[in-house]
């Protein structure tokens, strides 16, 4: 059953990239799935390179699991195509797609030992016994589970069980591994630790991973690229840095950067910058150049961590610090802007240099950190 992608059967584990770590691993074109009136996934398209760690990020119900299940073959698309390693697998049964899975529930066989659980995909594929023993041993070692092979799943902690599930997906070296909220059931500390472990294994083995989470931080820590999903649509598919610094929609700016939004109108362009007159304070803020006509109504978006406090009267607006909270290395402050009745402007600055409640401050931002989104005149 070579079609299962038992690539490079004698591959030595440490530091060796999998045989497929070049070129395009997976592509999805105009994938769509509806349930009655609900459009669960709306024309999703993406190309994923071999060796890439891609995350579907979105709140509950945004279509992440449905997209992943269509790729896996457990859910039939209404339309669209799925290609794995250049082969159209849209109508193939799950086990013929050569993909590995790890789900939130560990789904280990309770009556089998750890080693038997991990061996299962190889047993199923008729791999010789010696080969199975060797590869199970190697895989358990990668996941730090050497010595646990003889235990039953119930004799392991949640984190260890999830590592076993990961081993079972890794053991036959599928070209692509799919993971749906695999750390969702674990506590924060263990989750942080396993994020790093999964990322390390992925990089060392050159694995292609599609990962699902609703946790922004988890997505940012682990991914080469993130598809931000919303109501069945891929809102933006980009690197964490691009999503953070060049969000293409207000939704992305809010979801990843928790941006401040300030309504205003484009006043003029000066060389490489665009100047926006803010509604609330009447101040003028300088943004990166945007190709929008003067007079266009916009939402100005700036992340709290990219605002700076300066002397009152300087910057694009002045206000009074209404609250300031120390959160470890940062101070989070809420600023009541002069002449405005909008929400408090949220500011995050390194602790020690933080403003204090009651203080009068000016607010400034590097134009590179100021994003603009045109808004509908009537709605704006
Ligand atoms: P996510 O994984 O992002 O939370 P899902 O892909 O599970 O989102 O669901 C997307 C949408 O499709 C939701 O509105 C959900 O209620 C709906 N949905 C998912 N599976 C089914 C199903 N089997 N039957 C009916 N509606 C479904
Ligand atoms: Mg889900």
Structure, described:
The protein is α+β, with helices and mostly antiparallel strands and 380 residues long. The protein contains eight helices and 20 strands. It folds into two domains: 2-245, 3-Layer(aba) Sandwich (Rossmann fold); 262-374, Nucleic acid-binding proteins (OB fold (Dihydrolipoamide Acetyltransferase, E2P)), CATH 2.40.50.140. The chain has helices spanning 64-72, 114-124, 129-142, 158-170, 188-205, 216-222, 240-245, 250-257; strands at residues 24-35, 38-49, 53-57, 79-84, 87-88, 99-102, 176-180, 208-213, 225-230, 233-238, 260-270, 273-278, 284-288, 297-302, 307-310, 317-327, 330-337, 345-350, 360-365, 371-374. The strands form four sheets. Strands 6-7-8-3-9-10 form a six-stranded mixed beta sheet, with helices on both faces. The protein has a five-stranded antiparallel beta sheet with strand order 13-12-11-14-20. Helix 2 (114-124) packs parallel to helix 4 and helix 3 crosses helix 4 (158-170). Adenosine-5'-diphosphate binds next to strand 2 and helix 1. Its EC number is 7.6.2.9. InterPro entries: AAA+_ATPase, ABC_SmlMolc_Importer, ABC_transporter-like_ATP-bd, ABC_transporter-like_CS, Mo/tungstate-bd_C_term_dom, NA-bd_OB-fold, P-loop_NTPase, Transp-assoc_OB_typ2.
């Amino acid at each position: 059953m070579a079609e299962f992608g038992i690539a490079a059967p004698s591959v030595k584990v440490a530091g060796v990239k999998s045989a497929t770590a070049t070129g395009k691993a997976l592509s999805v074109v105009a994938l769509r799935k509806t349930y009655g009136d609900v459009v669960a996934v709306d024309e999703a398209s993406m190309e994923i390179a071999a060796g890439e760690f891609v995350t579907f990020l979105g709140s509950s119900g945004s279509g992440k699991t449905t997209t992943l299940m269509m790729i896996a073959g457990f859910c039939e698309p209404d339309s669209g195509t799925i290609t794995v390693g250049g082969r159209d697998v849209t109508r193939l049964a799950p086990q013929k797609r050569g993909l590995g899975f790890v789900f939130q529930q560990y789904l280990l066989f309770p009556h089998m030992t750890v080693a038997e659980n991990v061996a299962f995909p190889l047993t199923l594929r008729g791999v010789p016994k010696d080969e199975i023993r060797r590869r199970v041993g190697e895989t358990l070692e990668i996941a730090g589970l050497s010595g646990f092979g003889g235990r039953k799943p119930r004799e392991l902690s949640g984190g260890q069980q999830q590592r076993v599930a990961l081993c079972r997906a890794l053991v036959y070296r599928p070209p692509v591994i799919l993971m749906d909220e695999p750390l969702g059931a674990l506590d924060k500390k263990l989750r942080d630790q396993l994020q790093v472990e999964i990322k390390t294994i992925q990089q060392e083995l050159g694995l292609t991973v599609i990962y699902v989470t609703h946790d922004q931080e988890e997505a940012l820590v682990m991914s080469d690229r993130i598809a931000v999903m919303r109501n069945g649509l891929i809102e933006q598919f980009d690197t964490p840095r691009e999503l953070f610094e060049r969000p293409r929609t207000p939704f992305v700016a809010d979801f990843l950067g928790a941006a401040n939004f300030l309504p205003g109108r484009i006043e003029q362009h000066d060389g490489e910058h665009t100047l926006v007159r803010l509604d609330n304070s009447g101040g003028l803020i300088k943004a990166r150049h945007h190709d929008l006509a003067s007079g266009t109504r916009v939402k100005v978006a700036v992340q709290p961590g990219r605002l700076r406090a300066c002397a009152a009267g300087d910057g694009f607006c002045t206000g009074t610090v209404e609250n300031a909270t120390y959160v470890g290395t940062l101070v989070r402050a809420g600023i009541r802007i002069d002449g405005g009745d909008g929400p408090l402007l949220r500011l995050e600055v390194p602790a020690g240099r933080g403003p204090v409640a009651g203080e009068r401050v000016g607010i400034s931002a590097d134009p590179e950190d100021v994003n603009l989104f045109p808004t509908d005149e009537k709605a704006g």
